[in-house]
Amino acid sequence: EKGGYDTFMEKEINEQPSAVADTLLGRTDAAGRLVLDELRISEDELRGVNKIIVLAAGTSAYAGTVAKYAIEHWCRIPVEVELSHEFRYRDPIIDPNTLVVSISQSGETMDTLMAVRYAREQGARTIAICNTNGSTIPRESDAVLYTHAGPEIAVASTKAFLAQITAAYLLGLYLAQLQRKLFTQQIRDILGALSEIPAKIQQVLETSDDVKELARNMKDTTSVLFLGRNIGYPVALEGALKLKELAYIHAEGFAAGELKHGPIALIDEGQPVFVVVPSPMDRHSLHAKVVSNIQEVRARGAKTVVVAEAGDEAVRDYAEQVFYVPETLPMLMPLLTTVPLQIFALELASAKGYDVDQPRNLAKSVTVE
Ligand code: F6R
């Protein structure tokens, strides 16, 4: 049942090319237009959407944060990401033009379910991005966009995360198409780039020996920091969460720009810092800013481990180790940069002898509030 792998988590990490491919499958018609047929909200209603609230918890909320960057960029619709357990208790402002998008692998997370119910009571339209057919959250939503990652058994989410991001991109492109925020050709180009992602994830998987070796060498580490910026910021948060969950190591993710506002005080000799570097093609030129963050922490003794795009030579001089991922559109990078961080956490936890499929204190679906 583990398909030749030692753990479900390893199997699920290796299933990510098909999780993304299957989530993309059958979403365009003969004319190349997007069709999301599980969407039971009228196109007119979706044309009127002028605000999106994403509700989710944990890893699923990080998928929501990735979606925020992409959807705001493509659709010019403001997107708020709210932890579902905070949402109900802050008098959120919702009206019929607000689209609430819940993201939940299990579809049973009580915090997220209660938040979706509350949003509906307030008059919002709700779409569920969910990996579990017929589960409660999709049943209680106006529409569903299923991710097709297949059952996720390991408690820590991996393939569901990439599938959630993929589904959220599709939703963003669909809205961009309906609201005419992108040209047809731009949408085609993004879909084309998305269709190449599964093979690129496969490449990352096949070149992960160095990541594994580093993880084994770092098994006695007691703290790891993760930096990311823009759409790489939620990737840093996810990298830190995987390490906490699986290896029980103190790990924290920061937006790289926040470093100078406090966290840089944590850096001392030997402190491992992972940096998710934006594409050199990023339209805001954040690449140079993050490279200078790497220099800053390194000058203070940090051991820097960098995840960057193939061909990015500028990072080499400042990194103890660089893991390259294949090139893609800047907005799609999380589907690739997340993978080495998952493998790192898996391998480090395994080296410590921990049960990666059933980490202590955690349950696969959290059905209490
Ligand atoms: C982390 C993890 C959790 C879940 C969170 C939400 O690896 O698995 O943080 O992402 O509990 O669960 P779902 O997506 O089922 O609502």
Automatic annotation (TrEMBL):
Active-site residues, Swiss-Prot/TrEMBL: K364 (for fru-6p isomerization activity)
Record's subcellular location: Cytoplasm
GO molecular function: glutamine-fructose-6-phosphate transaminase (isomerizing) activity
Catalytic reaction(s) noted: D-fructose 6-phosphate + L-glutamine = D-glucosamine 6-phosphate + L-glutamate
Transmembrane segments: none
Source superkingdom: Bacteria
Keywords linked to the UniProt accession: Aminotransferase, Cytoplasm, Glutamine amidotransferase, Repeat, Transferase
Domain SIS per the UniProt entry, residue ranges: 42-181, 214-359
EC number: 2.6.1.16
Top EC category: transferase
Subunit and partners: Homodimer.
Described function: Catalyzes the first step in hexosamine metabolism, converting fructose-6P into glucosamine-6P using glutamine as a nitrogen source.
Protein name (database record): Glutamine--fructose-6-phosphate aminotransferase [isomerizing]
Organism: Citricoccus muralis
Organismal lineage: Bacteria, Bacillati, Actinomycetota, Actinomycetes, Micrococcales
Interval of the full protein contained in this chain: 255 to 623 of 623
